[in-house]
């Protein structure tokens, strides 16, 4: 039993807030460097280039206006509401995923929903947070969750419903993220090792089956090409592996210290790396700030991940602890996969870099995840000294109030 001390007391974690906003501000600068126009004047003040970038302006809107609202609302929501309304948020996210699947007429991936003034939302991003909450609710009801067949089926049914819609929409990246989140939460919840091994085996078999189906039918060609390009980048250097090849060249050209920001003739300025302000923004960072800049960014992410694990370790309420674990798993996989695909050691999945890549939906989701962590640290459970079933009974009584 963890004793009450400065690490476990309820508090607003300002270090976490400062860290993520530091990353977000750096992300605005990186987006402006990635979208530096060939027609822009060179000899102008640094911030003039930032203001000239419409993408950087939009990103600033997400960081300084929308994200703080999300952060404040979720951080100050009554802690018991996170448990009470988790099912409602889960079904709402599935509904939004279905709406995109049905009404989006785009070819290929159907992941975005048009809103106002040219802005779009990506419901699969918000589904990640709803999955964290619903799984934390279900897995915290017992000291050893998924210890019987009905409980195991329930968890897999919760995972299966959004997974089916996401697969039908063609967005495999978000499906993988949700799978990683679920696996990490199951691992730290104390689920039996047999269940975890079975989940891993099912994931491997499922991936092999999808690859075999694509190879046999030749359907969904862009996903097949992405997989084949990763396995044999030289053969597909002008097609499926082009983006990854250009990314590696850009990162390599940065050397140790980088070529600097807003440099005429840079690969980012000449748009040699497709999507270098979104999924492949790490290529822009490597070119502009070099190996040292990349390592500083990776170190900042390492601090973020380890610090959230530290907060989870010192959280006595299992529901809150699993929320932090889920958010940590989401951030960790995003960072590893995004950087891995940018340097060519992992396949391309279209997963953004947290707080850095351009995009409102991912920024709101990442800030929302941090807000959930802050909510837990701000409302450290008063039921920590009793057993999980007793604690759950108290929570259920509170939800009826």
Per DSSP E runs of 2 or more residues, the count of β-strands stands at 2
C-alpha Rg (nearest Å): 22 Å
Query: Helix share of residues?
Result: 55-70%
Q: What is the rounded distance between the termini?
A: 29 Å
Share in β-strands: under 5%
- Structural classification: mainly alpha
Overall shape? globular
Unreliable spans: 382-387
Order of helices and strands: HHHHHEEHHHHHHHHHH
Order of strands in the sheet with the most strands? 1-2
- Mean pLDDT across the residues is 83
Domain module count: 1
- Biggest pleated-sheet summary: 2 strands, antiparallel
So how many helices?
A: 15
Provide an overview of this structure.
With 401 residues, the protein is an all-alpha fold. The protein has one domain (14-189, 241-400). 67% of the residues lie in helices and 1% in strands. The chain contains 15 helices and two strands. The chain has helices at residues 14-34, 46-52, 54-76, 79-84, 86-103, 123-139, 149-169, 172-189, 193-217, 221-231, 242-253, 281-313, 318-342, 360-378, 388-400, and strands at 113-114, 120-121. Strands 1-2 form a two-stranded antiparallel ribbon. Helix 7 packs antiparallel against helix 8 (172-189), helix 11 (242-253) crosses helix 12 and helix 13 (318-342) packs antiparallel against helix 14 (360-378). The protein is globular.
Which properties best describe this structure?
401 residues, mainly alpha, 15 helices, 1% strand, globular
């Amino acid at each position: 039993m963890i004793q009450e001390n400065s690490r476990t007391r309820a508090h607003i974690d300002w270090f976490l807030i400062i860290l993520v906003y530091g990353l977000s501000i750096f992300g605005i600068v990186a987006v402006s460097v990635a979208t530096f126009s060939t027609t822009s004047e060179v000899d102008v003040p640094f911030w003039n280039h930032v203001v000239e970038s419409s993408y950087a302006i939009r990103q600033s809107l997400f960081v300084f206006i929308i994200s703080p609202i999300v952060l404040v609302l979720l951080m100050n929501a009554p802690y018991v509401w996170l448990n009470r309304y988790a099912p409602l948020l889960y079904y709402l996210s599935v509904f939004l995923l279905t709406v995109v699947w049905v009404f989006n007429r785009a070819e290929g991936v159907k992941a975005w929903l048009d809103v106002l003034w040219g802005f779009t939302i990506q419901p699969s991003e918000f589904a990640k947070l709803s999955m964290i909450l619903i799984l934390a609710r279900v897995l915290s009801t017992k000291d050893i969750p998924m210890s019987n067949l009905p409980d195991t089926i329930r968890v897999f049914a919760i995972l299966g419903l959004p997974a089916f819609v996401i697969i039908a929409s063609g967005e495999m990246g978000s499906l993988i993220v949700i799978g990683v989140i679920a696996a990490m939460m199951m691992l730290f919840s104390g689920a039996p090792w047999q269940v975890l091994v079975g989940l891993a085996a099912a994931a491997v078999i499922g991936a092999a089956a999808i690859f075999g189906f694509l190879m046999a039918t030749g359907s969904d060609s862009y996903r097949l090409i992405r997989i084949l390009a990763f396995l044999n980048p030289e053969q597909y250097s002008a097609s499926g592996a082009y983006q990854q090849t250009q990314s590696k060249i850009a990162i390599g050209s940065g050397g140790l210290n980088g070529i600097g920001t807003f440099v005429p003739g840079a690969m980012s300025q000449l748009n040699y790396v497709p999507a270098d302000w979104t999924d492949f923004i790490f290529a822009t960072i490597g070119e502009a700030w070099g190996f040292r800049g990349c390592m500083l960014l990776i170190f900042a992410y390492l601090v973020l991940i380890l610090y959230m694990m530290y907060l989870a370790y010192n959280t006595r309420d299992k529901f809150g602890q699993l929320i932090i674990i889920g958010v940590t798993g989401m951030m960790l996989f995003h960072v590893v996969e995004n950087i891995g695909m940018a340097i060519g050691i992992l396949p391309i999945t279209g997963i953004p870099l947290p707080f850095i890549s351009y995009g409102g939906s991912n920024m709101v989701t990442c800030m929302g995840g941090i807000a959930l962590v802050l909510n837990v640290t701000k409302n450290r459970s008063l039921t920590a000294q009793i057993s999980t079933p007793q604690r759950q009974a108290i929570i259920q009584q509170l939800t009826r109030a």
